[in-house]
Design brief:
The structure holds two protein chains of two kinds.
Chain A: H1 5-23, E1 48-53, E2 62-68, E3 71-77, H2 90-93, H3 95-99, E4 109-111, E5 116-118, H4 121-134, E6 138-143, H5 150-161, E7 164-168, H6 175-185, E8 190-193, E9 200-204, H7 215-226, E10 235-240, H8 245-248, E11 252-255, H9 261-272, H10 281-291, H11 296-303, H12 307-319, E12 323-327, H13 337-350, E13 358-364, H14 371-382, E14 386-391, H15 396-399, H16 406-412, E15 415-418, E16 432-433, E17 444-449, E18 452-456, H17 471-481, H18 492-507, H19 513-523, E19 525-527, E20 556-561, H20 564-567, H21 576-580, E21 593-596, H22 598-604, E22 610-615, E23 620-627, E24 635-639, E25 645-649, E26 672-676, E27 699-711, E28 749-752, E29 758-759, H23 770-773, H24 787-797, E30 811-816, H25 825-833, H26 841-845, E31 854-861, E32 868-875, H27 885-888, E33 894-896, E34 902-904, H28 914-917, E35 925-926, E36 953-954, H29 960-972, H30 985-989, E37 995-999, H31 1006-1013, E38 1017-1018, E39 1030-1033, E40 1035-1038
Parallel strand pairs in A: 6-7, 6-14, 9-10, 9-12, 10-11, 14-15, 15-16, 20-24, 21-23, 28-40, 30-39
Antiparallel strand pairs in A: 1-2, 2-3, 4-5, 4-16, 8-13, 17-18, 18-19, 20-27, 21-24, 22-23, 22-27, 25-26, 28-29, 30-37, 31-32, 33-34, 35-36, 38-39
Helix pairs in contact in A: 1-19, 5-17, 6-13, 9-11, 9-12, 9-13, 14-16
Chain B: H1 6-15, H2 22-48, H3 63-88, H4 93-117, H5 144-177, H6 180-189, H7 197-230, H8 242-268, H9 278-309, H10 312-323, H11 327-339, H12 347-350, H13 353-379, H14 395-418, H15 424-436
Helix pairs in contact in B: 2-14, 3-4, 3-7, 3-8, 3-13, 4-5, 4-8, 4-14, 5-6, 5-7, 7-8, 8-9, 8-13, 9-10, 9-11, 10-11, 10-13, 11-13
Classes of the chains: A alpha/beta, B mainly alpha.
């Protein structure tokens, strides 16, 4: 394994982490800082990193949790874990808000139909023990998908109790993939997608940059494949009814009606059959037989996709090798999902991708049970088979469609116990609530794929004030009290160690177990490569039949798309960060919306932002319409996972308040109340499982849409739609506005031709006064000198010999727009790192959001193709050398530091806000009030960054506190800061490595190299001559267009 | 025209200082009420932050700065009338000079509140002053906001001094006409002015000196306020025409405000009708026409500048101002400031008191809108389209604005009942010179 300097650094810190971790002997440990005798190597004020494993989704990425003074304050990726290599998504970062969630339940609770009663553990445990002792029936355990030792423990426990069922509930539609692999190759597993090896990537609806499979790993590889380098740039084609964030990053989007994707794949198969020379006779005969009934002309008619497009796709695959075709995601989870996967498998097989870009033998994401089992469990519950139902950290009452009948059977269950950390919809229905630890407070393990054995350790003592138990410990305790045999371990950590002992034996390593265990704790697990296995076509496939989609229907097809970008997949906790960070494509905050194609909207008489009623056979909801060209005309899309309640301060609303009558907020009345965010799309879906694989059909529900005649209260963060003089009401009847950057060069693009050369697109001529703005203009005889010149002059005049300016550091940042996918992980990282308050929907709507960093989204019309294209550009304080904010501040609250940053001194700020006015990038934020961090969320606050009060300005600091920390460390060690030693929070999080940060004074640093050499570099608004320290690398488009 | 005798003049002015009747009390109550609401709104704002003002990101200056510029503008007319017109010996000046000066003083006092009200942390407003301190913290002399502090405070000190200097002989007159406590009070205020030749000599010289010194201040204060905007890099603000534009606007709105005040004053004190005569009002109306034409010129020049600069940011914001969502305000401003005042060209219109009052009120509204548009529309439509936003008024700023009018009105109402609101000695001088002819 390669170890670069960054990894080395992490590991040195991990060393200290291990000592602390080893210090925690049994679980639970109750320690409150300050220690009388602190652990060895513990220094107050120093960040300590703990390696653990994420439990937010089945991908099980490795985490490094930053802790200060015994509190987890920030989640980062573990660079050693091959799943995510140090990068991390938004949802994982927001898990801190689940750990410190104000809606987290504080202790055991007994519930009868009349009342809720807070009880203690001895009583709560006693009640459960009694029920289990009675042994009147079986026990059902529903939990989140886990792939390590835990399922074994539960299964053994249920076995010892005399039978029961363990069910891992996850809604991700992944079983079609497994099932299709079983059908085609005889291997029921999720393969390893080697995106980085492909030159051409075709995804049938798979939103692998957001939620599907293991998004962080796939995003990282995608960046490798799709970003521009000397070797060119891979091509990505997105096919499907919906253009998700993943689709917007593609080079081409081919709209295809829902339920027809498999036919399109078959059509391509047919066309590339001829060139598939690697097939054996038998295989050829088999595939020929499978494809025989389908003709391209017919597919053309059904899918509404011209035969030339299908031909082009086939051509791309034939000549674009190595290629990779993926299918999946919620928008592909129709009743034909398995057929689509089978067709795609065939396509991959024909293109020769199996064994090259698709490797079997990794067995990704094990441990999820399909929903067919859930259906069985519901039936069995109804039949009274289970006397005790244990539900742990899943929320079936919310995430399952209503007609699944779960809520009714749970209400009717003899005895139901919730073991969730959150008081969620399901927990409210249970008779007893025994809250368990959050995974950051627990021991555990996971196996994300073959060869990755990830370990979970508690990164901190339990959050003060919460009386919880580890779920493993609870089961062991129950087993002991029930006198079940085979559960000797005193706590779950010991149990886990026992399982890892077995693993250690299995792996036949040379190190002894203690060393192995210690290493695993330090490094967050044990990592190996996996052995790919060869697969071939299963001859039984000949029996497989594809079906045509049903006849064209009257209504619209609802796609319940999913994206962890906004909703944390309905996971528990107070994910206010995710609600506040705008959804990258729509820029909607704190709300649900329904995406409708403009043509459909015109037909239905709907304008952008109208409140519409969406009704299906299961129910109806009122939601805002968001007109979007990236959806098929026959479909509408809504996000799953919305509609949950977030605990939020009840600040009085500036929106509904009177214009003349005072709205006063009484500090004493400020409470934390639940705020509903959007609507639950499950109210529209019905319980239809795909017959072959038992995934829920997220796509294909027939809905009707009708305007209500009202305007929705929809808050989006992009202001550019505001009516400009150029888009009149008459020209823009749908009210969508012009969301382009209006030719202001904030995002710049290069075109890559087929030969791999870059071209500037035809640009507007700069205006005739440009030379008087641009300092470096050759003809310029300016009045102003550049800053270094000024400093030199000032030094000379003041009689000093040497001007000390930007010495030895000058921090700069470069953002590669060709890598940026707009996922906003950086924004959440910034919220977490810099104690940025969340302001809520009303205030966000007034433009009072506090985010220091934002990902701007522009919808540009391509002059050549006439189609709309979506671009993203991260924007934050550009730390200008010749900044506008500095000279206008009357009190020097903002000034230029010697290392080239625009420092902001909160204590000195009087709040004139002139700096914000004079900032052309508009990246400064003002505290319009003192915001609350509802307890216990305040425990997450980073002690290295001040919490700002009302009336002061704030902005991005390039994570100045991290620089400070590194400087201090470097000074102690008598050296300079190494390149890559300081990583800003946004850079650290970025799954695509789009952000490069470093010292420009160091000629060998990565940033100096890129800045001096890369022809794609540009700065925004150069005519203002603010000399920003943030530059961008231009986006590269294939042949002048993208999706 | 009937000539007033000196004694008659004295009586009339002294009568204006007698306790006011019901209308005056009602006016005072209204003013106190408005001020009270404003003070209440500000106290809420002090406690909770700038929550209840419509300011947002990116429009971080809004109604408060608009009010500041508006009141600074109002504050111009008094000094202009008493200083420049004094130097030019304009005939219609003497009867309105005192009232206009008082207006200046109170308007600049009102204006001075707004930069403090608008601060995020007003309790640290004194940090904008260069005072010696242990922390060795100094202010940033590059910042136009610091220039503002100096310009406004200089102007305020100067106009107060000028005002008091002019008041002295009249206070002495009131002292001589009154008895008892009142005599004591005005006696102290008159600073021992006895009307000796020696005193008159010094007073006249001093007054002339002040007038000469005040003249550049009229130009400087509005120019500095304009620099608050034009020094920034923001399109719509960053333009060299802003300083003369603001000076003209200030004079224009100041004259309108003088009319707005003089006409009720004449109604309130019927005895003043022959002191503040129709010719005087008509004289101001003529000036209003002139200023209105100048304003139209600046409005046109803004468009020309945007076109001629070739800068798309500049032209975008100027077009946005005129044709964007605020277009109603823009065209209202054009009508109120450039079209309606032209009615004063006609003798028939400008000799009607009602017309004068209505037009002057409309000009006040138009000028407020103009400042609002300059401040807000430039900020709402700047470089980065992603951040464009709109402004929505909130209750606190509305009440604070109303409160500022209450504050101004209260000061003015108290002034007319405590001090001679016409410059008696100057009118006497004028009468005298007429008699001599």
């Amino acid at each position: 394994m390669e170890i670069d300097r960054r990894d080395f650094l992490k590991m040195t810190l991990l060393g200290s982490a291990a000592v602390l971790a080893a210090g925690c002997d049994t679980d639970p440990v109750e320690k409150m800082y300050p220690h009388l005798i602190p652990p060895y190597d513990y220094v107050p004020g120093r960040t300590i990193l703990f390696a653990t494993t994420c439990e937010e989704c089945p991908a099980s990425c490795g985490l490094l949790v930053r802790t200060r003074e015994g509190r987890a304050i920030k989640i980062e990726g573990n660079p050693l874990n091959p799943m995510n290599r140090g990068r991390i998504c938004l949802q994982a970062q927001s898990t801190l808000q689940a750990l410190y969630s104000p809606s987290r339940i504080k202790g055991p609770l007994a519930r009868t139909s009349e009342k809720e009663e807070t009880i203690d553990w001895s009583r709560g445990g006693g009640i459960l023990l009694e029920k289990l002792k009675a042994r009147e029936g079986e026990v059902l355990y529903i939990g989140p998908p886990r792939s390590g030792a835990f399922p074994t423990l539960v299964r053994e426990f249920l076995q010892a109790l005399g039978g029961g069922k363990y069910l891992a509930l996850d809604m991700s539609p992944l079983h079609s993939l497994k099932k299709a692999n079983k059908l085609v190759f005889g291997k029921e597993e999720i393969p390893y997608y080697a995106l980085e090896r492909a030159k051409l990537l075709i995804s049938f609806g798979a939103d692998f940059l957001e939620t599907w499979l293991n998004p962080v790993e796939l995003t990282r590889k995608y960046a490798k494949m799709h970003s521009y380098s000397q070797n060119g740039k891979g091509k990505h084609i997105h096919i499907g009814p919906h253009m998700s964030l993943t689709g917007t990053n593609a080079d081409q989007w081919i709209p295809c009606p829902s339920g027809c994707e498999h036919l399109l794949a078959l059509g391509i198969c047919k066309l590339i059959m001829g060139s598939a020379t690697h097939l054996s006779q038998d295989e050829r005969a088999l595939i020929d037989k499978l494809l025989e009934p389908y003709r391209v002309e017919q597919i053309e008619k059904i899918c509404g996709i011209p035969a030339t497009t299908i031909g082009d796709l086939a051509h791309e695959i034939m000549y674009g090798a190595p290629s990779l075709v993926m299918a999946g995601g919620n928008s592909g989870a129709s009743l034909h999902a398995t057929q689509l996967q089978v067709a795609v498998n065939l396509l991959n097989y024909l293109a020769g991708n199996i064994g090259k870009t698709i490797l079997f033998g990794a067995d990704y994401l094990p441990g999820i049970d399909d929903l067919g089992q859930m259906e069985t469990a519901i039936t069995e519950m109804r039949d009274g088979r289970y006397k005790v139902v244990l539900i742990e950290n899943v929320n079936p009452a919310f995430v399952l469609p209503k007609d699944s009948g779960f809520v009714e059977v749970l209400k009717g269950a003899a005895f139901s116990v919730s073991l969730s950390t959150e008081l969620d919809e399901t927990a409210r229905l249970c008779d007893l609530h025994l809250p368990t630890n959050h995974f950051l407070e627990s021991w555990g393990d996971a196996r994300s794929r073959r060869g990755v054995y990830a370990l979970q350790q508690p990164v901190m003592a339990k959050v003060p004030g919460f009386d919880t138990k580890g779920v493993g410990d609870l089961i062991l305790w129950l087993a002991k009290r029930l006198r079940l045999s085979g559960f000797e371990e005193s706590n779950y950590r010991e149990y886990l160690k026992g399982r890892w002992k077995e693993l250690h034996k299995e792996l036949e390593l040379s190190v002894n177990f203690e060393q192995f265990w210690k290493n695993a704790v330090q490094r967050g697990g044990y990592y190996q490569d996996f052995e790919p296995v060869q697969v071939s076509l299963d001859p039984d496939l000949a029996e497989f039949r594809f079906s045509y989609p049903p006849e064209k229907r009257q209504g619209l097809t609802l796609l319940a798309v999913n994206s962890n970008l906004h909703n944390a997949n309905a996971k528990g906790g107070n994910r206010s960060w995710l609600a506040e960070v705008p959804h990258p494509v729509t820029q909607v905050v704190w709300d649900s919306w329904v995406e409708i194609h403009p043509n459909t909207a015109r037909r239905l008489g709907i304008r952008h932002g109208d409140l519409v009623e969406v009704s299906s056979s299961s129910g109806k909801v009122n939601v805002a319409a968001w007109l979007y060209y990236g959806i098929h005309e026959s479909a509408v899309a809504m996000c799953t996972g919305m509609g949950r309640e977030v605990m939020f301060p009840n600040y009085s609303s500036p929106v509904t308040g009177g214009k003349f009558f005072p709205v006063i907020e009484n500090q004493e009345n400020l409470k934390i109340v639940p705020v509903k965010v959007g609507v639950n799309v499950m109210e529209l879906l019905s319980w239809r499982l795909e017959p072959l694989c038992c995934d829920l059909a997220f796509a294909g529900e027939e809905v009707e849409i009708r305007p209500t005649g009202k305007k929705a209260y929809l808050v989006t963060m992009d202001g550019q739609y505001l009516p400009d003089v150029r888009t009149s009401e008459r020209k823009d009847p749908l009210g969508f506005g012009d969301r382009s950057q209006k030719g202001r060069g904030l995002i710049q693009v290069l075109n890559l031709d087929r030969e791999g050369r870059l071209h500037e697109p035809k640009q507007e001529r700069p205006h005739h006064l440009a030379h008087s703005y641009i300092l470096e203009h050759p003809k310029k005889k300016g009045f102003y000198r550049s800053i270094p010149e000024n400093v030199d002059r000032a030094a000379r005049l003041s009689g000093k010999n040497v001007a000390k300016y930007h010495d030895p550091y000058k921090w700069e940042m470069i953002i590669d727009l060709d890598r940026c996918i707009g996922c906003s992980a950086c924004v959440v990282a910034c919220y977490a790192e810099n104690n940025i308050p969340v302001v809520g929907k009303d205030r966000a709507g007034l433009g009072r959001e506090m985010s220091w960093m934002r990902v701007e989204r522009y919808i540009e019309k391509n002059p050549k193709t006439g189609r709309f294209e979506i671009y993203y550009v991260p924007q934050m304080c550009q730390q200008c050398d010749n900044a506008g904010c500095e000279p206008v501040c009357p009190v020097y609250a903002t000034y230029q530091t010697p290392d080239g940053l625009n420092a902001m001194i909160y204590n000195r700020c009087v709040g004139t806000r002139y700096c914000s006015n004079n900032c052309p990038y508009k990246v400064r934020r003002f505290n319009w009030r003192t915001y609350m961090f509802p307890a216990p969320l305040h425990l997450q606050l980073n002690p290295a960054v001040s919490v700002r009060c009302k009336g002061v300005m704030e902005k991005c600091t390039f994570c100045q506190h991290r620089i400070r920390e590194a400087k201090d460390r470097a000074k102690d060690e008598g050296r300079k800061i190494r390149d890559g030693e300081v990583q800003t929070a946004c850079q650290q999080a970025c799954p695509t490595n789009a952000i490069i940060f470093g010292n420009i004074k160091d000629p060998n640093s990565e940033i100096s190299r890129i800045k001096s050499k890369d022809p794609r570099r540009y700065i925004q608004l150069p005519e203002l001559d603010f000399q920003p320290a943030l530059s961008f690398l231009k986006k590269v488009n294939h042949q002048g267009s993208k999706a | 025209m009937s000539q007033l005798s000196y004694a008659e003049l004295n009586t009339r002015v002294v009568r204006s200082l007698e306790p006011g009747g019901k209308p005056w009390m009602v006016s005072i109550l209204l003013a106190v009420g408005a001020l009270g609401m404003g003070a209440f709104a500000w106290s809420v704002q002090l406690r909770h932050g700038l929550e209840w003002s419509g300011i947002n990101h990116p429009i971080s200056w809004g109604v408060y700065i608009t009010n500041f510029v508006f009141w600074v503008g109002i504050a111009h007319a008094g000094t202009l009338i008493s200083a420049i017109l004094h130097l030019l010996r304009a005939p219609f000046r003497s009867s309105i000079a005192r009232a206009a000066e008082a207006m200046t003083v109170f308007a600049i006092m009102t204006a001075g509140l707004f930069p403090i009200i608008h601060l995020g942390r007003p309790w640290f407003a004194y940090w904008l002053l260069p005072y010696p301190n242990q922390r060795l913290l100094w202010i940033n002399f590059k910042s136009p906001l610091v220039w503002d502090v100096f310009a406004v405070s200089t102007y305020m000190c100067f106009s107060v001094a000028f005002f008091i200097l002019g008041l002295i002989p009249d206070l002495a007159m009131v002292r001589d006409e009154s008895k008892g406590l009142k005599r004591l009070f005005y006696g102290i205020a008159a600073l021992g002015f006895r009307g000796t030749n020696h005193q008159w000599l010094h007073h006249t010289r001093g007054y002339l000196l002040f007038a000469a010194m005040a003249t550049p201040l009229i130009f400087s204060v509005s120019s500095v306020v304009a620099w608050d905007f034009s020094v920034s890099s923001l399109p719509g603000w960053h333009t060299t025409i802003l300083a003369p534009f603001f000076v003209c606007g200030a004079v224009f709105s100041g004259f309108a405000m003088v009319l707005t005040i003089m006409i009720p004053l004449r109604t309130m004190f019927p005895g003043f009708k022959e002191i503040i005569r129709m010719e005087h009002l008509k004289g101001i109306a003529k000036l209003v026409v002139f200023m209105s034409l100048l304003m139209s010129y600046w409005y046109g020049l803004e468009f020309f500048g945007a076109y001629y600069s070739g800068s798309k940011f500049e032209s975008s914001v100027i077009w946005y101002r005129a044709f964007g969502p605020n277009k109603h305000l823009f065209w209202m401003m054009v009508v109120f400031n450039s079209v309606i005042p032209l009615a004063f060209i006609f003798e028939r219109v400008r000799s009607k008191v009602g017309a004068l009052l209505v037009v002057s009120l409309l000009i006040n509204v138009g000028m407020w809108i103009e400042r609002f548009l300059i401040v807000v529309s430039s900020l709402s439509h700047d470089f980065v389209p992603f951040t464009w936003a709109e402004y929505h008024f909130q209750w606190a700023e509305i009440w604070i604005t109303i409160g500022s009018f209450g504050f101004f009105a209260l000061l003015y109402l108290l002034f007319v009942k405590t001090m001679p609101s016409v410059a008696v000695f100057e009118i006497k001088e004028a009468l005298h010179s007429k008699e001599e002819k």
